[in-house]
Amino acid sequence: MSETPQRRRLPTGMRALAHPNFRLYFAGQAVSILGSWIQQVALSWLVYRLTGSAALLGVTAFCGLIPQLVVGPLAGAWIDKHDKRKWLIGVQSLMALQAFVLAGLCWLDWITPGFIVLMALALGTLSSFDAPLRQSLIGSFVGSRDDLPNALALNAMLFNAGRFVGPPIAGLLLGLTSEAFCFAINGFSFLALISAICLVRGEPPKRAQGSVGQVFREGVRYAWHTWAIRWLIVTLIALNLTASAYAVLLPVFARDVFAGDATTLGWLWGAAGCGAFASTIFLATRKSISGVVGAVVAGVAISAAALLLFGATTRLPLALAAMVALGFGISVCNVGINMILQSSAPEALRGRIVSFFTSARFGFDALGGLLAGFVAAALGAGQTLVLEGAALTVFVLFLLTLRQRLAAQVSAAQGESHGH
């Protein structure tokens, strides 16, 4: 691909921003993600403030994520058959409505644990369509397969920048205002991405032919019979079933282990976000997708060690350092695998491959969170994370035996996709 003058002026780690459509998406997504993180922290604090239940934190997180596992794979097949931009605008509008309803219930003091669970389930169902829609559209926004890995890394950088900045802001807002105000901010934040998508120009991606069932089965066959994709998805499942479950228990650590409040919770979230943000800067500068395989394996190992440290310590400075490492490790693994899958998969199958990624990423995060909540109610939050860290360490030892074959097959698959 010949380089434009603007592309040559940009640093290697930001080259995807040379594409005008991606710049529009990037700006709208930045505002939307910040609002989403503010709502997520406010919601977890609301649940624990109302009930004091670690198990209910797990149930709420489970309901917010489990639709990704159940609905997500079929959503990818459905998405590949429809106009992705039009449906992204519709789904984002419904997500804004969900946030405003949650704000209204809180403001009127009508909120109950039952309502919270229903609202989390509604958001999770919408997210089953939203995540694959956004991810699969990124390729059309950059219009270049060479710049796609960088665009995906920059998109993840936005997510993690919001994760770094949003929770401390949410902690401050919760101290100064209320959960209702935080939910309302999130509702308005969706308007930024909706506006950006309306301004995007260009041809929409081609749609898949056949019934949803046929399209779904075609995607499943491709993912199952491609050895590297199969094992990368297994790695996602192992990581998110264990390491990602820490998020559910953070309010317990903030209040009961470190004797803090919503501000302490914000700092714990922010520390993990800091590590995750650093990981996406690292990934954005990678020039070789096959080299990302080594980073993914290292990310799983770092996550296991950080889980063990965070679960065992009662000192807040040490816990914050462990959160930075855990955020880095989880993000390197999740974002790196997304980069590999989308760069290797044929464009016609991208919506389905992305849906399998989001299903494994968020669906098993939901199962892990539910499990962690109940185990923590019986054994304590610290013991729970130590057990999960030990289980992930065993998986790391197995993953090391697959590393060379994974790198070789990813490199070969990317070469074939460029050939097409």
Automatic annotation (TrEMBL):
<feature type="transmembrane region" description="Helical">
    <location>
        <begin position="292"/>
        <end position="312"/>
    </location>
</feature>
<dbReference type="InterPro" id="IPR010290">
    <property type="entry name" value="TM_effector"/>
</dbReference>
<keyword id="KW-1133">Transmembrane helix</keyword>
<feature type="transmembrane region" description="Helical">
    <location>
        <begin position="54"/>
        <end position="75"/>
    </location>
</feature>
<keyword id="KW-1003">Cell membrane</keyword>
<feature type="transmembrane region" description="Helical">
    <location>
        <begin position="318"/>
        <end position="341"/>
    </location>
</feature>
<keyword id="KW-0812">Transmembrane</keyword>
<feature type="transmembrane region" description="Helical">
    <location>
        <begin position="180"/>
        <end position="200"/>
    </location>
</feature>
<feature type="transmembrane region" description="Helical">
    <location>
        <begin position="231"/>
        <end position="254"/>
    </location>
</feature>
<feature type="transmembrane region" description="Helical">
    <location>
        <begin position="24"/>
        <end position="48"/>
    </location>
</feature>
<dbReference type="Pfam" id="PF05977">
    <property type="entry name" value="MFS_3"/>
</dbReference>
<protein>
    <submittedName>
        <fullName>MFS transporter</fullName>
    </submittedName>
</protein>
<feature type="transmembrane region" description="Helical">
    <location>
        <begin position="266"/>
        <end position="285"/>
    </location>
</feature>
<dbReference type="InterPro" id="IPR020846">
    <property type="entry name" value="MFS_dom"/>
</dbReference>
<keyword id="KW-0813">Transport</keyword>
<feature type="domain" description="Major facilitator superfamily (MFS) profile">
    <location>
        <begin position="228"/>
        <end position="420"/>
    </location>
</feature>
<dbReference type="InterPro" id="IPR036259">
    <property type="entry name" value="MFS_trans_sf"/>
</dbReference>
<keyword id="KW-0472">Membrane</keyword>
<feature type="transmembrane region" description="Helical">
    <location>
        <begin position="385"/>
        <end position="402"/>
    </location>
</feature>
<feature type="transmembrane region" description="Helical">
    <location>
        <begin position="362"/>
        <end position="379"/>
    </location>
</feature>
